[in-house]
Design a protein that fits this description.
Elements: H1 2-28, H2 42-46, H3 48-79, H4 93-106, H5 109-123, H6 125-128, E1 129-137, E2 143-152, E3 162-168, E4 177-183, H7 194-213, H8 226-240, H9 247-257, H10 266-281, E5 285-290, E6 298-307, H11 315-323, E7 330-334, E8 343-349, E9 354-363, E10 374-376, E11 394-396, E12 405-408, E13 416-422, E14 434-442, H12 446-469, H13 480-497, H14 509-530, H15 553-585
Parallel strand pairs: 1-8
Antiparallel strand pairs: 1-2, 2-6, 3-5, 4-6, 7-14, 8-13, 9-14, 10-11, 12-13
Helix pairs in contact: 1-3, 4-7, 4-8, 5-7, 7-8, 7-10, 8-10, 9-10, 12-13, 12-14, 12-15, 13-14, 14-15
Length: 597
């Protein structure tokens, strides 16, 4: 069916191409309508050129409309996904029953504490994650994320031979690229496969149900009743469903299922709900760590992965940067990992030839700057003047109810952004969808310095050539001025290509436009010089108007355009240089200070 539909669209596109060909010929041709009125008298015969011009404009507009139609059809075709997203797939009942049996047999004395720790890290990860450091490197097209997690695991030595530590929980259906997991020494650690992690999750669910219904302290092993086993099987179906499930659908299902389980208190019921809800939308990547790694109840794990970021470019400016081959100058980094640890550090590293121009911690929906008085809330789903999409998860609360803190490293000409957040994981509800928006610029001189030098050379050479054209000496120097005038165009093309090709951020739109102006003016000057007539003989009347000795109005126009380009780009370059110097002179707010001269 899809192949037939694609064939029909291909035939339709070909027919549109055939239709566009005569329209283009009629719009670009001359004389096809005018000569038909040459033999007629009256108004039509006298205005044949006007009628033909009107006809050519009409066919040009038709050709442009057909071109836009072709463009939109091809854009839709290229932008369409190759495969439609599949709905969540329910697992086989027989496989779920076998999974349920294996879960009951897996909970042994050796593995019981390790499974209980796995459950706790899923239900409340921030309780055991004492510190999380996230580093983002922007040196390549793909964002490289490096995360270091410090776990506080008391009595980990008594939890058996191995520990099951969920390190990251990607959304179901999301591919994790270039994932590497290491311990504190840098040695690689194994992770569980999908089948193994599902079996571990089912064992964790069985243990959680046993503990939630037990009246003994500490909870002891017990046999589940028939109703509880049926409820466990229904919860396993939610956990093992392939593909993310709608959170509202999951909540409605759990409201019915959890009524069949006897809980000793509301806290036990809430733990089961959190556990199933977390595993209904994500697959945990579980590290298998020897218990000996957790020395003194501390465990340090590191992982690395890559992301291909989406574009934030909007409007004509973003399209212009893209068309000129410029990299984006700002990046938005979500801080969702701050909700999984007591202490969170984020560092965004740009290339060494960049510095931080602006940095904001803000809501990614309303773009409002975050304050320490914000509290989390459930998105209202209602649009208003501040929340255009109804998705904001923050509100302003009394200072006494706020127990979180953040700090952003002051801008001092460095090439990185450092954000520290504490206490956001304990908030309920969570303050989600916060992001760090950072904008970077090149360290002077950079592209603006090269553009300034090119504009200066272009202006001087055009002024010299314009003076030579108007004198008798101009005929004696031959084609040397034409060669000299071509040099700025070559330099502009070289400087435009010599940019940070592999970096994610970089490039100056102003510098690129200035180089284009310098190159265009240089090419125009070469053409004008080669086509200039011989200079006027001595004794002829000079032109009344001159500009820096240039009397030809065409050379005056070229020199004026180049001079304006030079003035503006040099002004912006000087402004950037002074601003960067001011950033370097800022004093740190700490007690010590390193200085250089």
């Amino acid at each position: 069916m899809q192949e037939r539909r694609g064939t029909r669209k291909t035939v339709m596109n070909f027919a549109i191409y055939i239709l566009a060909i005569p329209l283009i010929i009629l719009a670009g041709g001359t004389g096809w309508l005018r000569h038909r009125f040459d033999g007629n008298g009256g108004w039509i015969g006298r205005h044949g050129d006007l009628l033909e011009a009107a006809g050519r404009i009409f066919f040009f507009l038709l050709a442009a409309a057909v071109g836009l139609l072709i463009f939109s059809r091809l854009r839709d075709r290229l932008g369409r996904e190759t495969a439609d997203p599949e709905p969540p797939v329910d697992p086989d009942v027989a496989w779920l029953q076998e999974l349920q049996k294996s879960a009951a047999s897996r909970i042994t004395e050796d593995d019981r504490k390790a499974i209980a720790m796995f459950v706790e890290l899923i239900v409340d990860p921030a309780r055991r994650r004492s510190r999380l450091t996230e580093t983002i490197d922007l040196d390549e097209r793909a964002v490289v994320q490096q995360v270091s997690i410090s776990f506080s695991l008391p009595h980990a030595e008594n939890g058996g031979r191995v520990l099951y530590v969920p390190v990251v929980q990607p959304r179901k259906g999301e591919l994790v690229d270039n994932f590497h997991l290491r311990n504190a020494r840098g040695d690689s650690l194994p992770t569980m496969s999908y089948e193994e992690s599902i079996r571990l999750a089912s064992a964790g669910l069985r243990l959680l149900i046993e503990m939630s219904g037990s009246e003994q302290v500490p909870p002891a092993h017990r046999t589940l009743g028939e109703a509880e086993r049926a409820a466990e099987l229904a919860l396993l179906q939610i956990v093992a469903t392939r593909g993310p499930m709608n959170s509202q659908v999951v909540d409605r299902k759990m409201d019915i299922i959890l009524e069949k389980i006897k809980f000793r208190d509301d806290e036990s019921r809430l733990r089961v709900r959190k556990y199933v809800a977390a595993l209904s939308s994500s697959y945990p990547i579980v590290a298998v760590v020897p218990a000996a790694e957790a020395t003194s109840g501390r465990l340090l794990l590191k992982y690395e992965r890559t992301f291909v970021p989406s574009s934030l470019t909007r409007g004509w400016r973003g399209l212009l940067r893209l068309s000129l081959g410029l990299k984006p100058d700002q990046v938005a980094v979500p801080v969702e990992l701050a909700l999984t640890a007591e202490s969170y550090h984020l560092r965004v590293n740009a290339p060494s030839n960049k510095y931080v121009l602006k940095q904001f911690l803000q809501c990614r929906h309303c773009r409002t700057l975050a304050t320490r008085k914000w509290r989390g809330m459930q998105p209202r789903g209602m649009k208003d003047e501040d929340d255009k999409q109804g998705l904001c998860a923050h509100k302003v609360g009394p200072a006494v109810e706020v127990d979180h803190h953040f700090r952003v490293r002051r801008r001092r000409g460095q090439n990185f952004v450092h954000v520290y957040m504490r206490g956001y994981a304990k908030a309920s509800p969570k303050m989600r969808d916060l992001q760090v928006l950072a904008r970077f610029k090149e360290v002077p001189p950079g592209a603006r310095g090269r553009a300034t030098v090119t504009a200066l050379a272009t202006t001087l050479l055009i002024a010299v050539a314009g003076n030579l054209v108007g004198t008798a000496h101009g005929a004696q120097v031959g084609g040397l001025p034409a060669l000299m005038l071509a040099l700025p165009a070559v330099a502009a093309g070289w400087f435009g290509m010599a940019s940070d090709k592999d970096a994610l951020v970089g490039g100056s739109l102003l510098a690129r436009l200035s180089l284009i102006v310098s190159g265009a003016v240089s090419v125009a000057a070469v053409v004008l010089y080669l086509g200039s007539p011989a200079p006027a003989p001595a004794g002829s009347i000079a032109q009344p108007l001159s500009f820096v000795g240039i009397t030809d109005w065409r050379w005056i126009a070229l020199c004026a355009v180049s001079a304006l380009n030079l003035i503006y780009v040099s002004y912006r370059f000087t402004l950037k240089l002074v601003h960067y110097s001011d950033l370097l002179k800022r004093e740190d707010l700490g007690t010590g200070e390193f200085a250089w001269r």
